[in-house]
Write a structure and sequence with these properties.
1 helix; mainly beta
Length: about 80
């Protein structure tokens, strides 16, 4: 049986980074049955995306949450 990856998903998890190279991360077929791994990123290929798995999450930069309160100055 030949391994195939999924075509481009319609919605990517926005909290996971998209990587150009696999690096040290693994494909699903490489970690099946090992509960220590979970999805940490997507790898962009020429014709779609494939999920990458690791044992530690990738830290991404998150914009600060602005909780500014603008009071109504009228009246």
């Amino acid at each position: 049986m030949e391994w195939k990856y999924f075509p481009t998903p319609k919605i990517l998890d926005p909290e996971l980074p998209v990587l150009q190279a696999k690096g040290t991360y693994k494909y699903l077929k490489e970690i099946t049955g090992n509960g220590a791994y979970y999805q940490v990123a997507w790898q962009k290929l020429s014709d779609g995306y494939v999920a990458l798995y690791g044992t530690t999450s990738i830290q991404t930069k998150v914009a600060p949450i602005l909780n500014d309160i603008f009071e109504d100055e009228e009246g």
